[in-house]
Amino acid sequence: MTKILLKSGIVVTQDARLGVLPTGDVLIDGDRIAAIAPNLAADDAETIDCAGHFVTPGLVNAHMHTWQTALRSVAADWTLLEYFRHVHAGLATVFTPEDIEIATLAGALNQLDHGVTTLVDWCHNNPTRDHTDAGIAGLKESGIRAAFFHGSPKPDPKPGEPHFSEVPHPRGEIERLLKGPLADREALVTLGMAVLGPHYSTLDVAAHDFALARELGLIASMHQGGGEAKTPGGWETLMERGLVGPHINIVHGNNLTDAQLASFVGLGVSFSITPENEMAQGHGHPITGRLRALGSAPSVGVDLESAVSGDVFTVARMALASQRALDNAAERTRSGGIPSTSTVPAAEAFGWITTRGASMLGMGDRIGSLTPGKQADIAVMSLGPLAMWPVHDAVASVVMQGSGARMRDVLVAGRFAKRDGRLLRSDLAAIRSKLAASGERILGRLDVPSVSHAVARMGATT
Q1: What is the total count of domains within the chain?
Q2: Residue 388 placed within a domain
Q3: Angle between the 453-461 and 428-445 helix axes, to the nearest 10 degrees?
Q4: Each residue's pLDDT tens digit, 35-77
Q5: Is 6 within a domain?
Q6: Antiparallel, parallel or unpaired: β 46-49 and 422-423
Q7: Is the bond preceding 57 in cis, omega lying within 30 degrees of 0?
Q8: Is the torsion defined by CA of 424, 125, 253, 274 positive or negative?
Q9: Does some domain include residue 429?
């Protein structure tokens, strides 16, 4: 098996026992981390100099609709209502399987380029099996570790068709995936369910979907928020029926009551927030502080590259800054003054994009920290000539000055996806061209306000 020794880096392990090694080594044996120490010797390993670099766990992007990669910037100025109208009821309806595959491949590669080794791909534009399989194929080709959360499209119903809120998640399709392309639950790409939940479906549909996920041992993830609930009181009924537990993942959750949050935390429900897009599109304030008050914490995701960038460091800082701002405002209201100290340590934000993401996926024993025995999902980030020097607090430096743009090396299960600042692909120009052509074709099929087709055409030729 291949051995790699990452030598003399600033090792931020996210392991409570190991902490930060100001100068440390990480030994990789095959797909796993074999050892971490200040000075390791391994004559049979390829040695890679990491002096002047942070060595960290690969990042976890806990929520992203990767199928929208070809629509980058299209939704930058849209509220949530405009997004629903233009994307779900409009642009999404003209996607071909080929559009899904190239968007997913390009989006996943961009995540790897930015140091993300695990992506929760929340795919809810798969009207046919071919669309679903195309998304899975794009993830597998990229080499990223991913949870493919199978969802369902949300177009306006045609005459005689039921509204999407009345349609249960398709058991047959989930069983097909578990017997076919996603049968191996230890593989890099695994399966989850992107369901409607009681906010966007009838009670019967929500109960069916929750029970199906629990029966099959899958995570059921759902959006919560954005207008009035389809099923008022639905959550309480589902809890009374014993259908809410650790297999449930709530995305956003801005409009949940404190009592609901407390109940969910007590039942082991996980939460994924997307702070940049939540604040921009009108979901409300991220629930970071409300979870912290209950002894919990969120995982964090990008959400929409059609609206924001794909850099997970950015959204982690957004979550941190927005909660500090809320806490500071509350203190000014209470006392008329500035708080005596920050309420949320910067180091917590790194946990939101590493260990909390791993926990949300039930993979805390495999990823999320640099720990001997875990998968060798690792990011090596340059301090740059000036940008991150000097390092006084390693974790705070990673959070506050970190950037996917400074990732030198990225490994997934011990294999390089990016090395010496370059993705290990020879076809990036072809991928860019195919992605741009896909975006132009999709936008050209529908008259969407605020979209410059000239820009789309320019992207196809550069």
Answers
A1: 1
A2: no
A3: 160
A4: 999 999 999 999 999 999 999 999 999 999 999 999 999 999 9
A5: no
A6: unpaired
A7: no
A8: positive
A9: no
Per-residue pLDDT tens over the stretch 356-383: 999 999 999 999 999 999 999 999 999 9
Distances, alpha carbon 179 to alpha carbons 173, 192, 315, in Å: 10, 14, 36
Q: Does some domain include residue 364?
A: no
Strands of 274-369 (E only): list them: 299-300
Query: Residue 57: which residues within 8 A CB-CB, separation 6 or more?
Result: 12, 13, 14, 117, 354, 355, 367, 368, 369, 370, 377, 378, 379
Copy the structure tokens of residue 107: 């989006």
Cα–Cα dist 206/221, whole Å? 11
Query: Rounded CA gap, 124 and 167, in Å?
Result: 14
| Closest-CA residue to 309 (of 189, 237, 403) | 403
CA–CA gap between residue 390 and residue 235 (Å, rounded): 49
198 three-state secondary structure: helix
Q: Report the alpha-carbon distance of residue 363 to residue 435 in Å, rounded.
A: 31
Give the separation between CA 202 and CA 87, rounded to whole angstroms: 22
Whole-number Å distance between alpha carbons of 277 and 127: 25
What pairs with residue 416 in β-bridges? Answer: 411
How far is the CA of 267 from the CAs of 78, 95, 296, in angstroms? 35, 38, 12
Amino acid at 63: H
Q: Which long-range contacts (CB under 8 A, 24 or more apart) does 266-270 make?
A: 267/239, 269/244, 269/245, 270/246, 270/299, 270/359, 270/360
The model's pTM is 0.94
Q: Of 19, 20, 32, 25, whose CA–CA distance to 7 is shortest?
A: 25
Sign (positive/negative) of CA torsion 65, 439, 173, 147? negative
User: Which domain range does residue 180 map to?
Assistant: 59-358
Determine the angle formed by the axes of helices 97-113 and 129-142, rounding to 10 degrees.
30
* CATH code (residue 119): 3.20.20.140
Q: Residue 339 has which token pair? A: 């708080």
Per-residue tokens: 48 = 């890679």
Q: How confident is the model at residue 458 (pLDDT cuts 50, 70, 90)?
A: very low
134-180 confidence digits (pLDDT tens): 999 999 999 999 999 999 887 778 888 888 999 999 999 999 999 99
Three-state DSSP at 4 gives strand
Distance (Å, rounded) from C-alpha 450 to C-alpha 355?
39
